[in-house]
Specification:
Length: about 375
């Protein structure tokens, strides 16, 4: 399928009957695949792509190699196929990459590799969406976005944000969909993850067990003597767990799986409230809640979520933070009892700015960071 033109070696796409099978494109529909956009008259077809490029005078000597067709270097596409087959073999399971590489890069990888080996190159292709900042595609070649690219480097992101929040943000989009990245999106992801963290705090208070180390699953509650509320919760969670697995089986639909986790959280919160588990509960309802929490955490672990308790970032002088917040909560309570509501609201608002959330309930005020 290859031919030589003035030291360059091209792949003749018209000779490959399967060319275009990844993107459903026909060879006669293709335009030039040369990276500089120039259509060489010597090429047999506009869509023919380079397997080998003849050396140019301005290229460094370290990028030139001797070959039967003269001095030159491998083409862009063949570099990737060669590396993949060197480390993964002639056939491997999953080939990933950005949606923008699907054509022509991955199409050409398939053509050259399978023509050379006669074997399937990759069994499954997974193309992910692009990251966008304020609806603009982020590209390494975009000088305007250089500062944004630097801020999005993984080390910088991890220094400024909770890693689990970043994971949650990514999981909320299907891997083939673009991800919008902004401060508002990060805040929304933090809020969404907070829904589960607050729920697991409730589970721990009611059950006196660590929800991040589940020892009980809903399967073990099938034959338990549950009251109607507990039986309804069990039936709902059994159904939702099946739906979670169906979403993951559907092309790794993590966005759909996250939506199911929210449904599980809503069902658990409703159970805690209607059964009044935070004020009084018997052993069986507590066990049902433990099992529900264990199922939530186990499903979250599939996505890399809820694997450990959120770290309390306290050290040095910050070790007094819990006592200080407790004191402010007490002052707020006294001010409200004295009908000094403006003072109480001011304390709440200022604590919120510092990342401390107050939750008022029948049993008093709880706070969390």
């Amino acid at each position: 399928h290859a031919y030589v033109v003035e030291g360059d070696v091209y792949f003749d796409v018209s000779k490959d009957e399967d060319y275009g099978k990844l993107t459903n494109r026909r060879p006669d529909d293709q335009e030039s695949g040369t990276r500089d956009g120039l259509i060489k008259a010597a090429k047999r077809n506009p869509g023919d792509f380079a397997l080998w490029k003849a050396a140019k005078p301005n290229e460094p000597e370290t990028a030139k190699y001797q070959a039967p067709w003269g001095v030159g270097r491998p083409g862009w596409h063949i570099e990737c196929s060669a590396m993949a087959m060197k480390y993964l073999g002639q056939t491997f399971d999953i080939h990933g990459g950005g949606m923008d590489l699907k054509f022509p890069h991955h199409e050409n990888e398939i053509a050259q590799a399978e023509s050379a080996t006669g074997k399937v190159f990759a069994k499954y292709w997974m193309h992910h969406g692009l990251t966008r900042f304020n609806t603009k595609k982020i590209s390494k070649s975009d000088a305007e976005m250089a500062k944004v690219m630097e801020s999005l480097q993984i080390t910088n992101l991890l220094n400024r944000h909770d890693p689990e929040v970043l994971r949650f943000l990514i999981l909320q989009s299907h891997y083939r969909s673009p991800i919008e990245f902004s401060d508002d999106v990060l805040k929304a992801a933090k809020t969404g993850l907070g829904t589960f963290r607050r729920l697991l705090e409730r589970v721990e208070r009611v059950t006196n067990a660590d929800p991040y180390k589940p020892e009980l699953q809903i399967e073990r509650m099938r034959d338990a003597e549950l009251d109607p509320r507990g039986r309804d919760l069990l039936d709902e969670l059994m159904h939702l767990r099946v739906r979670f697995l169906e979403e993951m089986d559907d092309d790794f639909n993590t966005a759909g799986a996250i939506a199911v986790l929210f449904e599980i959280a809503n069902a658990m919160n409703k159970y805690i409230d209607t059964a009044k588990l935070e004020t009084h509960s018997e052993e069986m309802p507590r066990n049902m809640l433990r099992a529900a929490g264990g199922t939530l955490v186990s499903l979250g672990n599939v996505l890399g979520l809820f694997e450990r308790r959120p770290a309390a970032k306290l050290s040095g002088d910050d070790s007094k933070l819990p006592q200080l917040v407790d004191l402010l909560v007490e002052v707020r309570k006294l001010s409200r009892e004295a009908k000094q509501y403006a003072i109480g609201d001011h304390i709440r608002d200022e604590l919120t700015k510092l990342g401390v959330t107050l939750e008022d309930g029948k049993d008093g005020t709880r706070w969390r960071i």
